[in-house]
Amino acid sequence: MGINRRDFLKIAGASALAGIGGASGLVLAKSGALEASQYTDDPKGLKAKRWAIAIDMQKFQTPEDYAKVMNVCHTIHNVPEIANPKQEIKWIWTESYEHAFASQDYANPYIQDYLKKKPFLVFCNHCDNPPCVRVCPTQATFKRKSDGIVMMDMHRCIGCRFCMAGCPYGARSFNWKDPRPFIKKVNPEFPARMKGVVEKCTLCYERLAVGLIPACVEASNGGMIFGDLNDPNSDVRKVLASRYSIRRKPELGTTPSVFYIIGGQ
Amino acid sequence: MLETALKGSRTYWIWILFLLAVIGVGLIFYLRQFTVGLGVTGMSRDVSWGFYISQFTFLVGIAASGVMVVLPYYLHNYKVFGKITILGEFLAIPAVIMCMLFIFVDLGQPLRVLNVILHPSPNSVMFYDMVVLSGYLLLNVLVGWTALSSERKGVAPPKWLKFFVILSIVWAPSIHTVTAFLYSGLPGKYYWMSALLAAQFLASAFASGPALLILLALIVRKFTKFDPGQEAIQALGKIVTYFMLTSVFFLGLKLFTAFYSGISTYSYPIVYLYAGLEGYNKLVPIMWISNILTVAALILLVIPQLRKNEALLAVASVCVFFALWIDKGFGLIVGGFVPNSFKQIIEYWPTIPEISITLGVWAIGFLILTVLYKVAVSVREENRDVDFHH
Amino acid sequence: MYNGGKIIIGLIIFLGFSTLPFLFSLGKAVAKPDPRIDTPEIQKMAEKKCVESKQFMKTEHMVILNDWRDAVVRDGLRLYKAKDGKMYDMSLQNTCMKCHSSKKKFCDQCHNYVAVKPYCWDCHIAPQEGT
Q: Do the Cβ atoms of A135 and B124 come within 8 Å?
């Protein structure tokens, strides 16, 4: 044999690379079974440039007003009910004014009593400049180009929780264990999630796709106004033009799409 | 050269077996975490990063600190560090591997980790972190191994090595800057929102890394025939002194802007860590232990007569290492999440499984360190009587 | 050869380990997979047709599901035009499993045989199996 070990290894390595390269080239060259033209969206689907929700705080008076909104979301999306608050998963819930608008409370501790005591619905703000999307290393969370919804791709999420650190609103939850045993009543039309991925409100994209408004908006019975922020004639633009509204932590530059109408008529 | 790690004294093998045992325990706990989920840790919806990420952050600093011995020697011909650069490079390798392992055990879906490469996201600092850490690992393996192989053969290292050495010198501060960028660009996390964070990271890295290197050099001198040299250890001591002073100075800067400005979002996390807030004070004891260790270390380091005493320098190094481990570990991570986005306080403390897995990863790091140091020391011992030039 | 004894013993141990799966199933005949498509929902269909042909689905159902996943979640699309022109909602739960309503008798048959564990059902909810 006249070959020494070093040369043998060099030749073996080069051959392996060539082999792998050739094989992958063949695989890529093989024509795909499916073509992009086979996919379309549903013509019934609701379309917008930028979805927004305005929450009319005057319309939320009793605990039931809040409960029906939160329950419908968590029910149809198979959100588990985990007793331990450290590991709970919530897409939409209520916080007091002081906690929901943590930065605003420093500005005005003498605000009207009714605002101080009123629960505020909080959920993902679907920001126009979302820090969570900026930090995701796999684009598992991304902003939909079509309508600005901040989406979650559960198949790609590696569970690094960088998005949870990036979100200044605490809108995201992580599956610290398998959620399936904790789902009260399974909705067979929508998937659940597995352990190890992050989840949050996704603005009922599955309902919008077939022409339905988000479940929370529907259940709120006029308490939440939904529409296209970019359309000056939309319901949401009309209500924002006529009454005073605030957003959570506006100083952080995230430009949230959820507005809280606290002004009167 | 790796075969030199298979020959050792009884002490050597007992140490290896001990490390393997710790790794085994960590592995068992990790299997449980892998099947049940990250709920076995103390992390929560509000403190969503904890012990694992804190170890990662601290260890990136240790990895980067290799540059503190490589730069003076290769760029400025500081011959005193001639024998110690290999120890620095061979410390960086297990440090980076531990960083990657800590990220891996922290992931909710670790089997999907390659998604970061399959779907590159140039907007995400974490993507860059993976790239720069992998690159730094390869650089240190290449440089360390090549330099040592040349030494073993008694020849000067190949000329192209200088390029990679310079590259690693530039690369080292960048890995820790990128790690700081993970934190310092997140809106709403006031404890981290500071332009100074990357500088803080580097200062504490260049104090804790060389401190560890001092301890490792002393251990190597005690257990083997290789002596890194008293002058080199003293030089490292001066480096630790200056960077520890810088770290404390930076802490002072942070305290000033947080408290003088009167902006509570910046001061509340500091109050929580060092004094407790609204009755929550779980971290106060260890943060003050860190402070006491810092003061003790600085006294031993700043006074030259004390620093020149190698036993006291070792004590100071231990103090520096643990003071900064607490500060960069617990303090940094928990401070970012407490109070949370709703101004509420949810506390964090690691669980037994979490601590066991952490110790397991540290043991893997020390195993790799032991093996690499055994190789380096064996080569040095072989060449003890050979005179050669770099 | 040098260390011949150790090498031969090592080789024997290696051969033992690598043939362990075959040794364990020696003498046992595992039934051929028998995926059943006689679910009540399929029985009710006038024209018993899947989204694509049986041969196509056999080889490409994983590709279809992967592509559907990206199309729905990432591109916001909903409808799939099959090769015969019919439109289908791209959904494992609401299209595929509406007809193939028994995971045990259909999906698991082949998957168990080739020891493949697709993680789809970690999240996607399979229809409740009857008695």
A: yes
Q: A73: burial class by Cβ within 10 Å (0-12, 13-18, 19+)?
A: buried
What is the per-residue DSSP string for B346-381?
------HHHHHHHHHHHHHHHHHHHHHHHHHHHHHH
Give the closest of A39, A155, A192 to C77, CB-based. A39
Chains that touch B (3 or more CB pairs under 8 A): A
Chain B CB contacts of A162 under 8 Å are 124, 126, 182
SS3 A4: coil
CA distance A39 to chain C (A): 5
**Closest Cα in chain A, distance from residue C123 (Å):** 4
Average pLDDT, chain A: 91
Q: Residue B389's pLDDT band (boundaries 50, 70, 90)?
A: very low
- CA A133/CA B6 separation, integer angstroms: 49
Contact of B59 with B321, CB cutoff 8 Å: no
Distance of CA B385 to the CA centre of its chain: 34
Cβ A188–C74 below 8 Å, yes or no? Answer: no
Q: Which of A38, A151, A186 sits opposite C81 (nearest CB)?
A: A38
Average pLDDT over residues C43-62: 88
Contact residues, chain A, for C64 at CB < 8 Å: 33-34
For A122, name the nearest residue in chain B, comparing CA atoms only.
B342
Do C80 and A192 count as a contact with CB atoms less than 8 A apart? no
- How buried is A58 (Cβ within 10 angstroms: 0-12 exposed, 13-18 middle, 19+ buried)? middle
- Surface-to-core class of residue B275, CB atoms within 10 Å of its CB (0-12 exposed, 13-18 middle, 19+ buried): exposed
Per-residue pLDDT, A33: 59
CB B376 within 8 A of CB B225: no
pLDDT band at B130 (very low <50, low <70, confident <90, very high): very high
Among candidates A38, A39, A189 on the partner chain, residue whose Cβ is nearest the Cβ of C93: A189
Chains that touch A (3 or more CB pairs under 8 A): B, C
Put simply, whether C62 touches A (Cβ < 8 Å) is: no
pLDDT category at C125 given cuts 50, 70, 90 is very high
Give the three-class secondary structure for A246: strand
Residue A110, pLDDT score: 80
> What Cα–Cα distance (Å) separates residue A89 from each residue in A92, A187, A230, B205?
9, 17, 32, 37
Model confidence band, residue B203 (pLDDT cutoffs 50, 70, 90): very high
Q: Is the dihedral of CA C83, C88, C91, C97 positive or negative?
A: negative
Does C75 sit within 8 Å of A39, measured CB to CB? yes
Is residue C80 within 8 A of residue A34, CB to CB? The reply is no
Rounded Cα distance between B237 and B249, Å, is 18
pTM: 0.92
B131 touches chain A (CB under 8 A): no
Contact call for residues B107 and B363 (beta carbons, < 8 A): no
Per-residue pLDDT tens over the stretch A23-39? 887 776 665 556 767 88
Tell me the mean pLDDT in the region B162-183: 94
